[in-house]
Amino acid sequence: MSDQNSPTAAQPAAEPVHLREIGQIALTVRDLAKAKDFYGRVLGLEFLFDANTMAFFRCGSIRVMISTAANAEPSEGTIIYFRTADINATHASLKEQGVRIIQAPHLVAKMAEHDLWMAFLKDPEGNTLALMSEVAHAAS
Fold first, then answer.
1. CB–CB of 69/55 below 8 Å?
2. Of residues 19 and 102, which shows the higher confidence score?
């Protein structure tokens, strides 16, 4: 009996994934205005931008996102966002390896210099992780 996850002659082995940099950490908050004040004024993080119920700050090379929960109580906790140059290839490789994908790569925001793409998955313990890719605009 063959293992369903083993590569076959007709199916090449998935390329290994080597994530080496955290691009963003997300925190769920109850009061966005109070949290923005804390992270910006109190902690001195550089404010980047707002997007609906989210605010983004820079802390060194890592972006910190704070957002309100869909309900009154934060429920998702912290999400680690891993940068990847090719989000579609990384997503495909992880999917081939049986990783539970929550949301396939999708455009999140069009920025001045790039488009922000994300995908979401679960680790074996059920923690949410994300892939993020900042795709430069094509030269016109």
1. no
2. 102
Q: What is the CATH number for 35?
A: 3.30.720.120
In this structure, is residue 10 part of a structural domain?
Answer: no
How far apart are alpha carbons 134 and 87 in whole angstroms? 9
Same domain, 41 and 62: yes
CB of 93 closer than 8 Å to CB of 14? yes
Q: Which amino acid is at 112?
A: A
> Does residue 41 lie within any of the structural domains?
yes
Q: What is the pLDDT of residues 75-111, one digit of tens each?
A: 556 788 888 999 999 999 999 888 999 999 999 999 8
Domain containing residue 97? 84-140
Q: How far is CA 28 from CA 6, 18, 33, 67, 125, in A?
A: 39, 27, 13, 5, 19
Is residue 62 within 8 Å of 79, Cβ to Cβ?
no
